[in-house]
Amino acid sequence: MPPPSTRHDIDKACCKDQYRELMRVARRWRQLKTIKWHGFSHRSDIPSTGELALFCLACPQPGINVLVAGDESLDDDDKNSPSWKYTRSFVMDGNFKAEHLHPIKPFDEVWLSDGLGFMVGKDRQMNMDYALCEAARHNMEGISRAVTFYDINCQYNKYFRTWVDASRFLEMMQDLTIIPRIGLWHVHGHQDSCYVRYASNFIEGIGRIDGKIMETLWARLNLISPAARGMSSPHRQECLDYQMNDSNFCKMICMKRTLCHKYKLAMNGITKSGKAFDRLDEAAPTHLKTEWSARERRAQSSRLNDPEAMDEYEINIKKAPSRKEIELRLLEEGSARNAAPSCRSVAMWISTGLAIEEAQIALLIEVRRMGRRSTETQRLDIAQQQDRLQGQIDRFTQSALTHLGEGFDADDEPDDLNVDILDDLNDDPADFSKTSDTWTNSPELTVIPLPSNLRVDRCRHCMAEDLITLEMSLHEGQANDTLHNLQIHLCNKAILFRTAVRQAKSQALKT
């Protein structure tokens, strides 16, 4: 048995840290495997840019997976071959979770496959411009049309060609037609006009695509990217390239099953949507269908140079006019006809009456909520509201003599008028008069002399039939205002439910 000192030296020699050598062997093994994988193991030529990356099997590649027949060509203007059949798609996005630490000795790093796979580094411009230009040069011989998906394509594509032409590092095919699109998830966060201008749903031949495939790929890559955070730049690049190639290989071997499943779903969808479309087509007049087809052709032919041409697909839903807008329009029409001052202010008078009825309903609800038992402060507040309301009713009734003519008497009995307010509340005046002696003969129970309360015969007697149409118009505006306020309150309830009732404090999948 050797002495302890000698045994310590032997253990120290056997346990020498050889992690650096292990990493070098792993890198060389990964490089050799990748070269063999792409068919360069028994060839004398050296791989060029992008040749160590597994390309998408479904994308058109002339000479590889696209064989042009005798009556077809890759030209966009060829009638025998639709342009969508030979269109390349590029999805652009950034991965903000694949962080990398700054190298300590960047001058001492050894690059084995820089730019030969997916990742680029070492004096390369790692931005969207460079990525798109390089992707558009890979197996694109003869392809003249490409679709790009980017979250900010509505602004990015405007000056892309200008940036490329002004740069001495970038180069783009001049005859390549770029169709800018925005992913369906992000386009709804843009302005409303961006949907019809940049969503993929309105481009013939693109199909049903969300334009967010990169998000699903980043999710898989982010499982390995934290482990590469502290690696050197070349080692990290090779590691991520290998993972991307593995991901593409897994997709390639499963593509047959996936495409067959999608094809069956598409055929079923065509059958269902075809029936729905036939019903709409049968109901539409022939002249309108001809006009719509012509407008669609103009929009599709002009969309590249003028994205606003796609506004033809926009749903023309005009916002319903409010009561103030209708009142303003009626006042302007009265001024345009040079009508008398009393005729010009009739719209304002009817609008005041509608506001009084709203105040009456609000006060009736308040009285009903208080019930029989009320405090002095509550009764004082109700009395003050009644006093203000009674003054408004008195002024409105006096103005009625001007607009309703001599056939109307302000001292007529209220029973001659049509009581709509109490009917809407499903209440009886006796229910309120019995609540307390304070509410007897209250102004909220008074029926004001609006044309709708006078009825048609009484309006004819007063020579005020034209006021019926004016009040109906203002009632429409009143209803529009009510529906708008209802929408606002529903949105407010939804926000409160999201922020106060069911709070989501993280991105966890479980609730």
Give a brief description.
The protein has helices at 4-14, 19-37, 128-135, 153-156, 160-166, 184-187, 192-198, 213-221, 233-253, 255-283, 286-302, 323-336, 341-344, 346-370, 376-404, 421-425, 429-433, 451-461, 466-501, and strands at residues 88-91, 145-149, 177-181.
- Silhouette: elongated
This entry's quaternary arrangement is: single chain
Strand content: under 5%
Mean pLDDT: 80
Q: What share of the residues lie within helices?
A: 40-55%
Number of helices: 19
N/C terminus separation:
65 Å
Mind telling me the C-alpha Rg? 38 Å
What composes the largest sheet? 3 strands, parallel
Which structural class is indicated by helix and strand composition? mainly alpha
Count of DSSP E strands? 3
Descriptive notes:
There is one protein chain. This protein is mainly α and 511 residues long. The longest helix is centred in the C-terminal third of the chain and has 36 residues, at 466-501. The model is unreliable at 413-427 and 429-440 (pLDDT under 50). Helix content is 52%, strand content 3%. A three-stranded parallel β-sheet has the order 1-2-3, with no helix packed on it. It is built from 19 helices and three strands.
Task: Itemize the secondary structure elements and their pairings.
Layout: H1 4-14, H2 19-37, E1 88-91, H3 128-135, E2 145-149, H4 153-156, H5 160-166, E3 177-181, H6 184-187, H7 192-198, H8 213-221, H9 233-253, H10 255-283, H11 286-302, H12 323-336, H13 341-344, H14 346-370, H15 376-404, H16 421-425, H17 429-433, H18 451-461, H19 466-501
Parallel strand pairs: 1-2, 2-3
